[in-house]
Amino acid sequence: MTTLQRPEDEGDDRASGVGLAATEYIYCFLVIATRTSIAIACAADAQYALPLAVMLRSVCTHLAPGVMVEAYVLDDGIPAHDQARVLASLPANVRVHWRQSPALGGALPLLGRMSLTTYQKLTLGGWLPPELDRVLWLDCDMLVLADIGRLWEANFEGSLALAVQDERVPLVSSRFGVAAWRELRLPREAKYFNAGVLLIDLAAWRSQEVWSRSMAYLRDFGGRVYFWDQEALNAVLAGRWRELDARWNWHPALDHLRAKCAAEPAIIHFSCNLKPWKF
Asked: I want to staple 206 with a disulfide (CB 3.0 to 4.6 A). Which of 81, 125, 168, 243 is the partner?
């Protein structure tokens, strides 16, 4: 797997508040010339209405001029008044498309704080518009600090998805990795990704039946699954995903990860129990 990294000469002047570097001007021009919208998918229940609003606004804050976000939000029980508050908090460069939660079917493994909403990323091939050829999945417990246009334009190079290797569970054979990696005959050294940020080739996702294959894994090995949908995706997409630089899915609880970032974090992921809105 190759790693998508930030160009070495890309300036950070925008972040420092002193204007854009020349490379940033060129980048903005190319972005406007090649795309006008980015499709984002996410899912939230009533407990995640506030984080959803913050995540979407942080995305829009850092977009290049003239770019629109088409946000497809799977509504897994967000009250109407909270939906209205989410919409009122967002700027003009985002359109929210609410989608109803499909039935997941069957008993799915859960543990502790997690709800069934976590499994809805597996179903996105069914509730996203058929004309979309790619989508950026973002978990709602995130804060975006950079223009995701750099990520959106990445080349799949034959892979089904782009993701960041998980720091806590680096390999499918690691503890809490893919429980059935031996039964599936996956290589011991195959990398394991965190599913919070996924750039997805939707046509391939649908044609490869990621949803039904993931459900089959959960049905067959559910009693041994630890990280829910993430484990199922790692089982199904093993060898079919390409690695992103760690800056695109940075976990603040893991201080040692910063040393592996090519630059400052682009997306902060408040994974585990570190949730700022709870303090």
From this structure: 125
Chain Cα centroid distance, residue 148: 11
Is the Cα dihedral 155, 147, 171, 48 positive or negative?
negative
Would you state the structure tokens that stand for residue 72, as one six-digit string?
């497809």
Per-residue buried b or exposed e for 215-252, using 16+ beta carbons within 10 Å of the residue's own CB: bebbeebbeebebbbbbbbbbbbbeebbbbbbbbbbbb
Q: Closest by alpha carbon to 275, among 185, 159, 140? A: 140
3-state secondary structure of 28: helix
Query: What are 246-257's pLDDT values in tens digits?
Result: 999 987 765 554
* 3-class DSSP assignment, residue 255: helix
What is the distance of C-alpha 90 from the center of its chain?
Answer: 20
Residue 164: φ, ψ to 5°: -100, 135
In terms of phi and psi (left: phi > 0; alpha: psi -120 to 50; beta: otherwise), the region of 11 is beta
